[in-house]
TrEMBL record:
Domain named Peptidase M20 dimerisation: residues: 210-369
Residues given in the record as substrate binding sites: 197, 230, 332, 345, 419, 447
InterPro entries xref list: ArgE/DapE_CS, CNDP/DUG1, Cyt/Met_Dipeptidase, Peptidase_M20, Peptidase_M20_dimer
Protein name: Putative glutamate carboxypeptidase protein
SUPFAM superfamilies: Zn-dependent exopeptidases
Length: 478
């Protein structure tokens, strides 16, 4: 069922109102990871609640505990839940978004003040501002849909429940516990779920995302001397933790990205014919990734291999060394203890537990081969499982139709290389099919300086979300 043309017309006629709403939201610096902004995060929750209630949404502000932030115990940002419509004849859609943002300072290299939504003076339609695309723009897209229907006196085609959090950029702490505690209460009666917190692969082609890689983050901790030592006095006489660490880290992955930990390669799920076809159909050119990284340094020049390397195969990346001398100058120190940090992106069949067992055994075995008297410990600091949804589910079919209606083209079917742990929490705890329906483009720079959303994406994204609801209402569950 196509979207009501009155809704689509209303969206076109109220672009300025929608941009003003986004400007109000961007102006609230809701940085969840900095204690200086605690009140601003709270203010953003209040803004969202007032907006939702003005649109007829029955809204609740729910506390979810406390956490330590910069040495102080403070309240976690509240979860904002809301519902509108309870017609048993209609499907019930759950939507999720987050109202917190990454830190941003003008001196980081922003062209304009990061918490002032700024239209590109060159007339490109870009709207610069922290949170514009991650995730305030998409969240407000849903509010724009609600406003259009309310003001037009149109009935919503589905019942809606919504869950907005203020801690996504800082680990979504306690959200999983909240979902678990409400699974038989607020979260009952839901048919499917939609999250708009990711992006197109490029700048031209809309997409539907049905998979995310998980992540295991590790530290290799090596210690020996009781204190830092002078290399001129002790160099050549002791086992040096840094030397041991470099030796171990060099045996984790090759320069061409091959993971050297035994057993991991064998766990990777084989590529199915349907999967292969989806990857081959993706609108992607090597130039897209070259532009994104700023150089032609890709391991392969084959588009499908590159996409699979980014989306459906595991990867191991070395991130840094803690405890090493890194200041300007030439200090001749032998660090007494050192931490090497790396992560593995997980894909289906690679579980947090099984991969960790393989990693720990391999690192311990390699360390023994060094014959060092230092001590070595491998620690999993955090882990998140991979997620894969059924892209043939009726929710995806509805989103496919909505995309064709709004953009005049079929969407790509993509999997994200990164992780959105909350997706897995919702999918597993509530036993739901989750659709990732991106609004923004691949060059939006979500966590970077000069984050932006294009006006066209914001406005057509609003139409897309609304059209998806209409298609969802009409489509068969079979």
């Amino acid at each position: 069922m196509a979207a009501d043309p009155r809704f689509l017309k209303y969206v076109d006629e109220h672009q300025d109102d929608y941009i003003n709403r986004l400007a109000q939201a961007v102006a609230i610096p809701s940085v969840s990871g900095n204690i200086s902004y605690v009140k601003d995060v709270e203010a953003m929750a209040d803004f969202l609640i007032s907006q939702l209630e003005s649109l007829g949404v029955k809204t609740q502000r729910r506390p979810i505990g406390t956490h330590e932030l910069e040495g102080k115990e403070v309240d976690l940002p509240p979860v904002v839940i809301g519902e509108i419509g309870n017609d048993p004849k209609k499907k019930t859609l759950l939507i999720y978004g987050h109202y917190d943002v990454q830190p941003a300072l003008l001196e980081d290299g922003w062209l304009y003040p990061p918490f002032e939504l700024t239209k590109d003076p060159e007339g490109t339609g870009k709207l610069y501002g922290r949170g514009s695309t991650d995730d305030k723009g998409p969240v407000l897209g849903w509010l724009n849909v609600l406003e259009a229907h309310k003001n037009l006196g149109l009935e919503l085609p589905v019942n809606m429940k919504m869950c907005f959090e203020g801690m996504e950029e800082n680990g979504s702490e306690n959200l999983d516990k909240f979902i678990e505690s409400e699974k038989d209460k607020f979260f009952t009666g839901i048919d499917c779920m939609c999250i708009s917190d990711n992006y197109w692969l490029d700048t031209k082609t809309p997409c539907l995302t049905y998979g995310l890689r998980g992540i295991n983050y590790y530290e290799i901790r090596i210690s020996g001397p009781g204190r830092d030592l002078h290399s001129g006095v002790f160099g050549g006489t002791v086992h040096e933790p840094m030397t041991d660490l470099i030796a171990i880290m060099s045996k984790l992955v090759t320069p061409t990205g091959e993971i050297l930990v035994p057993g991991i390669k064998e766990l990777i799920a084989p590529v199915t014919a349907d999967e292969q076809a989806k990857f081959e159909a993706i609108h992607f050119e090597m130039k897209d990734i070259h532009d994104a990284v700023g150089a032609d340094v890709t391991i392969s020049n084959d588009t499908v291999k590159t996409l699979m390397g980014r989306m459906r195969n595991p990867s191991l990346s070395l991130h840094g060394i803690e405890g090493a001398f890194s200041a300007v100058g030439s200090k001749t120190v032998i660090p007494a203890s050192i931490k090497g940090k790396f992560s593995i992106r997980l894909v289906p069949n690679l579980t947090v537990k099984e991969v960790t067992e393989l990693v720990v055994k391999y690192v311990e075995d390699e360390f023994k081969k060094l014959g060092s008297k230092n001590k070595c410990e491998v620690v999993l600091t955090h882990g998140g499982e991979p997620w894969l949804a059924d892209p043939n589910h009726y929710s995806y079919r509805a989103a496919h139709k909505a995309t064709e209606a709004v953009y005049g083209q079929a969407p790509d079917y993509t999997r994200e290389g990164g992780s959105i742990p909350v997706t897995l929490d919702f999918a597993n705890i509530l036993n739901l099919n989750v659709l990732l329906l991106p609004v923004g483009r691949g060059d939006d720079g979500a966590h970077s300086t000069n984050e932006k959303i294009d006006t066209d994406n914001y406005i057509r994204g609003t139409k897309l979300l609304g059209s998806y609801m209409y298609e969802l209402a009409a489509i068969s569950k079979e």
